């Protein structure tokens, strides 16, 4: 929240207003690009950005994190709009927002920090791959296949179309040029880099298209009020559909995880107050509830805009609130400006954003140091590409739980022979059903003609399955002429 004391300091106000302009210029093309890629009117991306600034920006949680439509939810939104229709998107987002509010009030925010980092990285990598596969077609102004695997299989045909079709080649050239500008912009002098790279890339592509007399596809713009479609009772009735409920859960969990992981990353970039995760989760929920009521896109905290906010020198929430105000003024006063931006250029921005979601540089060191975590990341990402976002994340979480259970169930079995021929078998560590086959295999190798003692006093944990199996082994191990196995706990 913005304090009165901060607003009385002209130096702070001036610095944060300047930072808000930088964030606005970064957010503008991203809001439009995410909306177009999600299959909804471009203006709805601006609506979500406005709510993220003016509403979420005023709420407690994180002072410097900036919220709006995110590339990370593009795939899920596109699938939801395709399957259930644009009219049902509002109720889905609203229900997801209310669920986030309840989770925050119940103080579940901190528990999102317990989600395996590899699963989150795999989720983002999978989303990034799906975004790139889809937006390559959009860069050529070509209709994309329905599934990620179909998009992958269709790449040779896409390449052939780009080479043989002048219109496709022209559009793809604008998109590729946008990506090139985004890649080269950080290497330019600091004075040039004062203009955010996404805005510069889109502006240059638009200028080239206009000066060269090109006619690429552009967004269909009807104005902010025309784009907003308040959901009615019929649309809310769709929430009774089991498939819709699953989508609501996916929206809420993925948006929450992405927002709170973004908060952790932003907290490492500044020395100001730390994020209150429960309050931030409530704030994100309130924002999504309002976006849902307006029929707009879902929101998350966005690392690109948040990082730009911190790097621009913002120290209070004024910058993120003001960036929402600039988005509102632009949407109200200059909506037609969106209608001249080539869709291929917006697709290029999302291709670049999708590639940044894939941790190419981090995967090698992760494979060398923590191979299991690298496998978890890769499996989650590939599962999202092969199936869908929700099923891929669920599989990743299940694998993380199994991996954790396997790694924590270490158990050591040692034997020693005492004078008189008595054998003492000692188990230490954690004996769970996951290690039971190995334990029984070693026990069954013991001689059956010697008195045996099974020492379980060194176990930190013994689950029910192991206890029953060990008792059964002790009863049947020795023959009738030998003393039965004794168990010491």
UniProtKB/TrEMBL annotation:
Parts of the chain that traverse the membrane: 17-37, 84-105, 117-138, 168-185, 197-218, 238-261, 281-304, 324-353, 374-402
GO cellular component, one term: membrane
Keywords, sorted A to Z: Membrane, Transmembrane, Transmembrane helix
Membrane disposition: Multi-pass membrane protein
Intracellular or extracellular location(s): Membrane
InterPro entries cross-referenced by the UniProt entry: SLC26A/SulP_dom, SLC26A/SulP_fam, STAS_dom_sf
GO biological process, one term: transmembrane transport
Domain SLC26A/SulP transporter: 14-380
Protein name: SulP family inorganic anion transporter
Organism: Streptomyces arboris
């Amino acid at each position: 929240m913005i304090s009165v004391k901060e607003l009385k300091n002209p130096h702070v106000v001036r610095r944060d207003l300047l930072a808000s302009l930088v964030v606005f210029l970064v957010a503008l093309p991203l809001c439009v690009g995410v909306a177009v890629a999600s299959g909804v009117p471009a203006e709805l991306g601006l609506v979500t950005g406005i709510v993220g600034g003016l509403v979420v920006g005023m709420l407690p949680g994180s002072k410097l994190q900036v919220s709006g439509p995110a590339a990370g939810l593009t795939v899920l939104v596109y699938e939801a709009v395709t399957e259930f229709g644009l009219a049902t998107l509002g109720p889905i987002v609203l229900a997801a927002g209310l669920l986030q509010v309840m989770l925050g009030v119940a103080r579940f925010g901190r528990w999102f920090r317990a989600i395996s980092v590899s699963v989150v990285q795999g989720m983002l990598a999978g989303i990034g791959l799906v975004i790139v596969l889809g937006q390559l077609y959009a860069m050529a102004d070509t209709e994309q296949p329905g599934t990620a695997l179909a998009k992958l299989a269709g790449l040779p045909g896409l390449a052939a179309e780009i080479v043989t079709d002048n219109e496709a080649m022209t559009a793809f050239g604008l998109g590729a040029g946008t990506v090139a500008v985004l890649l080269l912009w950080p290497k330019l002098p600091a004075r040039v880099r004062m203009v955010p790279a996404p805005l510069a890339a889109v502006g240059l592509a638009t200028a080239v298209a206009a000066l060269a007399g090109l006619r690429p596809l552009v967004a269909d713009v009807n104005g902010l009020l025309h784009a907003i479609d308040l959901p009615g009772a019929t649309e809310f009735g769709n929430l009774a559909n089991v498939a819709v409920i699953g989508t609501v859960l996916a929206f809420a969990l993925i948006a929450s995880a992405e927002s709170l992981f973004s908060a952790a990353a932003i907290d490492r970039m500044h020395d100001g107050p730390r994020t209150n995760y429960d309050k931030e989760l409530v704030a994100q929920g309130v924002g999504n509830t309002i976006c849902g009521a307006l029929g707009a896109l879902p929101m998350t905290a966005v690392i690109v805009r948040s990082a730009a906010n911190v790097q621009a020198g913002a120290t209070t929430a004024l910058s993120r609130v003001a960036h929402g105000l600039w988005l509102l003024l632009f949407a109200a006063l200059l909506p037609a400006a969106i209608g001249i931006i080539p869709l291929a250029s917006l697709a290029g921005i999302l291709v670049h954003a999708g590639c940044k979601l894939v941790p190419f540089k981090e995967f090698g060191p992760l494979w060398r140091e923590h191979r299991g975590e690298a496998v978890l990341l890769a499996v989650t990402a590939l599962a999202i590409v092969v199936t869908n976002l929700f099923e891929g994340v669920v599989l990743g979480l299940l694998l993380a739980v199994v991996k954790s259970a396997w790694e924590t169930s270490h158990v050591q079995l040692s034997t020693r022979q005492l004078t008189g021929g008595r054998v003492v078998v000692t188990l230490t560590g954690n004996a769970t059903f996951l290690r039971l086959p190995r334990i029984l295999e070693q026990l069954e190798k013991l001689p059956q003609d010697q008195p045996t003692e099974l020492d379980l006093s060194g176990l930190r944990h013994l689950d029910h399955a192991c206890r029953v199996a060990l008792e059964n082994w002790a009863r049947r191990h020795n023959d009738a002429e030998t003393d039965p196995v004794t168990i010491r706990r």
